[in-house]
Amino acid sequence: MDLKHILNEVAERIKKSEEFKQLDKEEQQRFEQMVNPDLLNLISGGDVPAVDYSAPTNGKALQLKVSLKGAKPPIWRRLLVSDTLTLHQLHIVIQTAMGWTNFHLYDFQYGDVYFEEMEEEVEQSSSNFSKIHESKEALIGNVLVKEGQKLEYTYDFSNNWEHTILLEKIEDKEAAEPICLKGRRATPPEAVGGVHNYMHALKLLDDPAAQGEKVEFYRDLLQGQDSGHFDLEETNEELRKSLDSKRFSL
Fold first, then answer.
1. How many domains does the chain have?
2. Looking at residue 86, which CATH number applies to its domain?
3. What does the DSSP 8-state code read for residue 166?
4. Which regions of the chain are under pLDDT 70?
5. Residue 132 burial (CB < 10 Å; 0-12/13-18/19+)?
């Protein structure tokens, strides 16, 4: 007898017990969900059921908070998008809302599963790529399904601009086009070399006594930029433009 059968037997004994029968319906249903066959299979070391990330979703509105990791004070955008967006389309929305240039590669990560633009020659059957999925096919509503879930998003693997995407709310209504609801602070210039360099640059430029080549480089790079600035109206105007572009429909 294997572990899966043992777990099944234990679950059946619990369901037949007097203690279980005294539980209210909600608690009984919760237990049924806990001991579903897929979960028992996973616990016992079986294969994890494949997730179809491209399956149709309901078209509900998802409220997401996208935060740039390591930024102090925080840099973030609150977005409202449809759960029918592909992760590639979400990438375009984030690029636009944050103010990035969409010049570099990216990926999304959920646990040990990755989503990115796949090269045609990559064979999905290869064990090295079994947990990598095409971002142009995976829908956000099949990745984030519960409020409070988080998805990691990295842009530019050289400078590693890492973001956390938090599903704050699932609204029981259909979403129109993606919009930005709120945001804080300007996004760093990409040439600064990563979030830690940006934090260091702001600190140096805030010191009247600081001098040297690096200070001059940062001063030229950040000239005219207000690090505390965020324009909601301008951000949504740029989002509307991005929706009309060919790259959003790819």
1. 3
2. 3.10.290.30
3. E
4. 1-4, 26, 29-30, 33-49, 120-130, 246-250
5. middle
